[in-house]
Amino acid sequence: MQKERRLESLPEDWETALAFAAHPDDLEFGSTSAIAGWTSLGKKVSYLLFTRGEAGIDSMPPAKAARLRDEEERRSVAAVGVRAVEFLDYPDGVIEYSLILRRDIARAIRKHRPNVLVTVNHRVTFQGARLNMGDHRWVGLAVLDATRDAGIRWIFPELLEENLERWNGVKMVCMNGSPEPTHAVDVTSFLDKGIFSLKEHRVYIENLQGFNPESFLRKNATEAGKRFGCRFAVEFEVIWV
After folding, report:
1. Residue 100, Cα to own-chain centre: how many angstroms?
2. How many CA atoms are closer than 13 Å to the CA of 129, on its beta-carbon side?
3. Pairing assessment for the beta strands 16-21 and 44-49 based on DSSP bridges
4. Are 133 and 56 in contact, with CB atoms under 8 Å apart?
C-alpha cells in the first residue's frame, strides 16, 4: 500500500487572492472556511464566477434560477469577509476550454494583480474517485494556463489596449477538491463560517434532496484535519508558479 503523502501547511505570506469558480457554491463546498480565515487576517480575497448556476435547479427556469443563485452567492461571500464578486455569464454546464476562456482569466489576473489564485479541481475525479464535471475541469485547467498568459506581455496583446499590463506576481495556484492534495489550512476556528456560507445557498441545497451541508463540511474537514494534524482542515493541491 502506498504511504499517504504528508500535507504541508499552506503558506500565508501573501496579501491578495483571486478565487475562480465555475458556479455559485463551488467555493462554498470546500474553500470558504479557509477564505474566512484569510480575510480575518486582513487579506483581500475577490471572487470571479463564470456562470450563475442557472442549470442547477431542475424545478426552476434558468432565468429565474440565475437571479436567485446570484443573490444567494452574494450573501454567501459576505459571510466569509469577501466584498467583491463578479460573474462572467458563461452558459452553465457547457463551459469549453478555449483561448477566450484563458483570455478572460488573464484579464482578471492583470486587473486584480493577486499573489495567490484559488480555483476548482481540474482533474477527472474528486477524492474518492467521484467523477468531476467539465465546467470544473476546464476552468481549473484554464486558470493554470492563464496564470502564465497574464505574465507574458505579448500574449493577448489586446489586453494592453485595455491598460492591463502583464502581471507575474502570482506565487501559487491552490486547487480545492483535488484527489492529490499537497497542502492544508487549519480551519478549526473558521469552519462554522464556512458552513454558514454554504447554507446561504438555501434554495439550491433544498433541490439536492437530503443533502446536509453541515455534515458534509464537518466530515470533510475532520478527515483532512486527521491527515494534517489538527481538528478541522481544508486541503488544496498547490501548483507553484
Report:
1. 20
2. 0
3. parallel
4. no
- 88, 131, 183 from 104: Cα distances, Å: 9, 26, 28
- DSSP designation for 200: T
Please count the residues of the chain.
241
All structural domains of the chain, each given as residue ranges with its CATH number in brackets, are 14-240 (3.40.50.10320)
117-132 pLDDT per residue, tens: 999 999 999 987 899 9
Helix (H, G, I), strand (E, B) or coil at 103: helix
User: DSSP code of 125?
Assistant: B
Alpha-carbon Rg of the chain, whole angstroms? 17
pTM: 0.96
- Amino acid found at 201: H
Q: Which among 158, 118, 116 has a CA at the least distance from the CA of 139? A: 118
